[in-house]
Amino acid sequence: MAILDRRTIKRHNQAVTQWLVQWRGSSPDDATWEFAFDLQKRFPGFDIAAQPWGQGSTEGGSFDTHN
């Protein structure tokens, strides 16, 4: 997966972060907004700091979500 963008929204009266996720094998047009907290729990080894914001991932920058 690659993180294409991020945004902050209000959820239950609190500011929360969402990431625009391009899932492995899909096009950027099919990217979905996901809650950052949920993705961090689901993929604890994912390094958000390594993501090139707004550019998708490079060959080595994607994360294997099949584990």
State the main characteristics.
Chromo_domain; 1 helix; 3 strands; 3-stranded antiparallel β-sheet; disordered C terminus; Chromo domain-containing protein; single chain; 67 residues
CATH class equals: Mainly Beta
Oligomer: single chain
Structural class by secondary-structure content? mainly beta
Number of helices: 1
- The fraction of residues in strands falls at 25-35%
In total, how many domains does the architecture comprise? 1
The rough form would be described as globular
- Helices and strands, in order, run as EEEH
Low-confidence stretches: 54-67
Cα distance spanning the termini = 12 Å
Tell me the radius of gyration.
12 Å
- Could you give the order of strands across the largest sheet? 1-2-3
Under CATH, the topology can be stated as OB fold (Dihydrolipoamide Acetyltransferase, E2P)
Number of strands: 3
Helix content: 10-25%
Domain Chromo: 2-44
Protein name: Chromo domain-containing protein
InterPro entries: Chromo-like_dom_sf, Chromo_domain
Pfam families: Chromo
Task: Give a short synopsis of this structure.
The chain is mainly beta. It contains one helix and three strands.
Could you explain the architecture of this structure?
With 67 residues, the protein is mainly β. The protein has a single domain (2-50), classed as Beta Barrel (OB fold (Dihydrolipoamide Acetyltransferase, E2P)). Helices cover 10% and strands 34% of the residues. The chain has one helix and three strands. It has a three-stranded antiparallel β-sheet. It is globular and about 35 Å long. The model is unreliable at 54-67 (pLDDT under 50).
